[in-house]
Automatic annotation (TrEMBL):
UniProtKB keywords: ATP-binding, Cytoplasm, DNA damage, DNA recombination, DNA repair, DNA-binding, Helicase, Hydrolase, Nucleotide-binding
Gene Ontology molecular functions: ATP binding; four-way junction DNA binding; four-way junction helicase activity
Organism of derivation: Weizmannia acidilactici
SUPFAM superfamilies (UniProt xref): DNA helicase RuvA subunit, C-terminal domain, Nucleic acid-binding proteins, RuvA domain 2-like
Function of the protein: The RuvA-RuvB-RuvC complex processes Holliday junction (HJ) DNA during genetic recombination and DNA repair, while the RuvA-RuvB complex plays an important role in the rescue of blocked DNA replication forks via replication fork reversal (RFR). RuvA specifically binds to HJ cruciform DNA, conferring on it an open structure. The RuvB hexamer acts as an ATP-dependent pump, pulling dsDNA into and through the RuvAB complex. HJ branch migration allows RuvC to scan DNA until it finds its consensus sequence, where it cleaves and resolves the cruciform DNA.
Assembly behavior: Homotetramer. Forms an RuvA(8)-RuvB(12)-Holliday junction (HJ) complex. HJ DNA is sandwiched between 2 RuvA tetramers; dsDNA enters through RuvA and exits via RuvB. An RuvB hexamer assembles on each DNA strand where it exits the tetramer. Each RuvB hexamer is contacted by two RuvA subunits (via domain III) on 2 adjacent RuvB subunits; this complex drives branch migration. In the full resolvosome a probable DNA-RuvA(4)-RuvB(12)-RuvC(2) complex forms which resolves the HJ.
Residues covered by the Helix-hairpin-helix DNA-binding motif class domain: 72-91, 107-126
UniProt keyword Hydrolase, yes or no: yes
Family to which the UniProt record says this protein belongs: Belongs to the RuvA family.
Annotated region described as Domain III, given as residue ranges: 152-201
Protein name according to UniProt: Holliday junction branch migration complex subunit RuvA
Region of interest (Domain II), residue spans: 64-141
A biological process term (GO) from this entry: DNA repair
Primary residence: cytoplasm
Length: 201
């Protein structure tokens, strides 16, 4: 099992990044590869998880250890595979997912791609009370005021993503610009305008 890989970011694709370590290019499937776009040519430390099944061996990479731990926990939920776990991490911060599960917030969980009511309920049943080991490195998780602000911003961003999809933009195009948007609490319209500006650059 690989704990992490430290190397030069060689290239970024819609599904993975390539990290050059000692002349070997490691293909790491990540929730949002484009967060590494600004690091091409630079050395980065990426936390890894190797997933093995009968027909494939895949190496997954994460910017933070908390992301990897949540990914591993999600794989234990019936109905969620690596692709589904990646989608959840691509659209939400680990702290948001942990909070939603601990508060049994099904309406928040079903907003993630591929997560219906049945899967959201299963996530809560399987993981509630088992994610607090992820929380110590997330000081804002239990700060109620900041959590409320973050949730509002998250809802507006999610609505902006849906609007962009309705306008005909692909998921790859949207995933590329979302990391470029500010984290402060903006309205849905403001997020859309900023995303559109980023797409035409």
């Amino acid at each position: 099992m690989y704990e992490y890989i430290k190397g030069i970011i060689d290239s970024v694709s819609p599904d993975y990044v390539v990290v050059d370590n000692g002349g070997i290019g490691y293909q790491l499937i990540t929730p949002n590869p484009y967060i590494f776009s600004k690091s091409i040519g630079e050395e980065r430390k990426i936390y890894t998880y190797q997933h093995v099944r009968e027909d494939m061996i895949a190496l997954y990479g994460f910017e933070a250890a908390e992301e990897r731990e949540l990914f591993k926990k999600l794989l234990n939920v019936s109905g969620i595979g690596p692709k589904g776990a990646l989608a959840i991490l691509a659209y939400g911060q680990p702290s948001q997912v942990v909070e939603a599960i601990e508060n049994e917030n099904e309406s928040f969980l079903v907003k993630f791609p591929g997560v219906g009511k049945k899967t959201a309920r299963q996530m809560i049943l399987d993981l509630k009370g088992k994610l607090l080991d992820i929380a110590p490195d997330m000081p804002n998780l239990f700060n109620q005021e900041k959590t409320i602000q973050k949730s509002a911003a998250s809802r507006n961003l999610e609505e902006a993503v849906l609007a962009l999809q309705a306008l005909g933009y692909s998921e790859k195009e949207i995933h590329k610009v979302v990391p470029q948007l500010p984290e402060e609490d903006l309205s849905t319209d403001e997020y859309i305008k900023l995303a559109l500006k980023a797409m035409v650059k």
